[in-house]
Amino acid sequence: PADESAKPALSQTEAMLRLINPKQEFLRYRRRLEIAGIGAAILFVGLFGRFVWLQIAQFDHYHALADSNRISLVPAPPSRGVIYDRQSMVLAHNFAANTLEITPSKAGKLEETIDRLGQIVTIEAADRKRFKKLLAESKNFESIPIRNLLSEEEAARFAVNRYRFPGVEMKARQFRQYPLGDIFAHVVGYIGRIGEKDQARLIEEGHETNYKGTDHIGKLGLEASYETWLHGRTGIEKVETDSGGRAVRTLSRTPPVAGYNLYLHLDAKLQQVAERVFGDYRGALVALDPRNGGVLALVSKPGFDPNLFVDGIDAATWRELNDSLDRPLINRALRGIYPPGSTIKPFMGLAGLELGVRKPGDTIADPGYFTLPGSSHRYRDWKKDGHGMVDLKRSITISCDTYYYGLAQQMGIERMAGFLSQFGFGKKTGVDLDGELAGLMPTPAWKTKRFKQPWWPGETVVAGIGQGYVLTTPMQLAVATMALANDGIVYKPQLLRAWRDPETHKLIYAAPQVMQSIKLNPAFVQIVKEAMVDVTRPGGTASIAGANTPYLFAGKTGTAQVIGIKQGARYV
Description:
By secondary structure, this protein is α+β, with helices and mostly antiparallel strands.
């Protein structure tokens, strides 16, 4: 019975096997294998193609990326050019010192890093404040200084602990120094850190690449005027680095080219003498070489110490300088505009002769005042009782106001302005310093445009003695006087005398530049010169200056009205 019960089951299995077609199943199995093989082949071809793309087509790209992880291109800043006076005395130079710098992208938490650094080297609150300011302004810089001028002890302590501070490097940097301090502050100027405006200007001019790795730029004076000459050309170092970003070795190097060394017409000893003579007085002095326009001395008092600005001036010192009633930051030689006063009289006298308004022997009777026809108003002479009979030569020697009141009225403001403008009155001289002002040689057209008012005859009268609207800078008066000494040849005033090419080491001299040649009657010029010599002799207004001098010299004194200064007002 057991065998009989199993029999139907075996029959069912046999029936199912009979339903399966072995050939059909084999074909189905082979088809699956073929599909799987094709898929595997496609994947292999894709993988192989990708390998070809990465290893061959994109080789240069990924090779460069790999090298960038191992190799860094480090800019090599050039050495800034040195500035010398005519006797090769150093006015601006560089010195090397260690600085501690942080690369924010590699340093992690900045505050924590700075706190830990403060346990090794001294970091003052001012250092932190300056770092934050530079961090906000210096987006394109690779590293930002947190401490400058490290001592040897501080440098050694950091070197031992260097491994603890990723993103922090100790670098040897060049710093600018001005040995004579405030004596040449307004001439040589100073450098300062590159700010946003400087960066924008460099980008606009296409110079930003040449300033990679450079933190400073000329801000004032010759440092600014000759920035591209002084800066030089930045080099590049290809450096191999380890996983921590530390330099292992230098693979190649394109050396930087130093900036030009500049040699000036300025005489440091003459400048120092002029500074001592001024003492504590405000004022300006310009001395020019009439043979070529070279600026031998340029003083603006009071001055300031340019070394304060090199690494960023602190807020308190800046306020003290900027808010001072003495206005030490203003270059009075170029930006101080003043009524020329009686210093204009030699030029007025020459104008009277050249324009035929007066003859050398013409005289006037000076009662001590001048009145316009049909007017009772008196324009007074500086000498109350007058000077008696005065001709042109004596009018310059004794500085007779009355003579020039009448001369100006006869000449008229238009002809006066036209003649004096030839000597540079009312124009920039073109000296190789930025920030020069043009002064003012007024005309009726100028007054109508400026004030919407007519020109009055009395304004011509006072202009004849360098008052009223007439304004000049000390540099303009120096250039005009130089032109008079040169019989009408006007040289462009130049501070730069020569420069040395850092590659050829040749000293190249700057050629004098003649700006204008005024056609003058030599006899008339000689009369004015002789009168100016008499100014320094007994009876002249500068006889004290000329007393007991072993040499001959000429000059002209001048004073101008000074408006009273209220407390708190600014005086330039």
